[in-house]
């Protein structure tokens, strides 16, 4: 009985820490063998990986240029600026629904497309890379919107009142820190989106 209890406890812990394996109610089971859907997932997994690489390159530029490299050293400034992470909780909920996850990825990409304007102002010498990143974010968002329409998935629009507009930076240092956290948040957002797309590709 003791061993059984231990096994059940370990199983529960595994489920809680591996949300990608417990997507109850996912409505895409019937699409798991659809070649067009699989092609969409494969292409956009690669696209997301490419965007992640470009964000990482800009993070290195911010680190090298402004010596802003570690989040833990800037948390107090972050609280002052009020820069928040775009939500993606629907992509790792145990009651996962494709419509909700895709909608949050789409909306988050649009939000970061706008936020990158602050990074563009901060790094004019790297305008080409920032503008490419903005274009890629817009294209990935459009890809997801088009795929949702093709699959007949309901478009879900989440309230935006909790998503603060870009702050007005009171100093150049605050602008630098703001750019740092926009990129850090975007990178985390992309990692979560990538894991969600990868899970769907494996269904």
From TrEMBL:
Is Signal one of the keywords?
yes
Key words, A-Z: Disulfide bond, Glycoprotein, Growth factor, Secreted, Signal
- Indicate yes or no for the key word Disulfide bond: yes
For this UniProt entry, which segments traverse the membrane?
A: none
**Principal cellular location given in the protein's record:** secreted
- Leader sequence segment: 1-25
Kindly list the biological process annotations in GO that this record carries. immune response; positive regulation of myeloid cell differentiation
Any Pfam family hit: GCSF
Where can this protein be found? Answer: Secreted
Assigned GO CC terms: extracellular region
GO MF term set: cytokine activity; granulocyte colony-stimulating factor receptor binding; growth factor activity
- PANTHER family named among the record's database cross-references: GRANULOCYTE COLONY-STIMULATING FACTOR
Family membership noted in the UniProt record: Belongs to the IL-6 superfamily.
> What's the protein here called?
MGF factor
Q: Origin organism of this chain?
A: Galbula dea
Give the gene symbol: Mgf
């Amino acid at each position: 009985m003791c061993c059984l209890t231990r096994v059940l406890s370990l199983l529960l812990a595994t489920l809680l820490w591996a949300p990608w394996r417990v997507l109850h109610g996912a409505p895409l089971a019937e699409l798991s063998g659809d070649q067009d859907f699989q092609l969409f997932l494969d292409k956009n997994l690669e696209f997301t990986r490419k965007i992640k690489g470009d964000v990482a390159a800009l993070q290195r530029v911010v680190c090298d240029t402004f010596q802003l490299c570690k989040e833990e050293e800037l948390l107090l400034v972050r609280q002052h600026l009020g820069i928040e992470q775009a939500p993606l909780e629907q992509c790792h909920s145990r009651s996962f629904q494709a419509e909700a996850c895709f909608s949050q990825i789409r909306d988050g990409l649009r939000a970061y497309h706008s936020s990158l304007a602050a990074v563009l102002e901060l790094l004019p010498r790297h305008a080409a890379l920032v503008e490419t990143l903005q274009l890629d974010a817009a294209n990935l968002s459009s890809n997801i919107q088009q795929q949702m329409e093709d699959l007949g998935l309901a478009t879900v629009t989440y309230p935006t009142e909790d998503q603060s507009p870009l702050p007005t930076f009171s100093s150049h240092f605050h602008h630098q820190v703001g750019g740092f956290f926009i990129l850090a948040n975007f990178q985390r957002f992309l990692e979560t989106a990538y894991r969600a797309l990868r899970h769907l590709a494996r269904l």
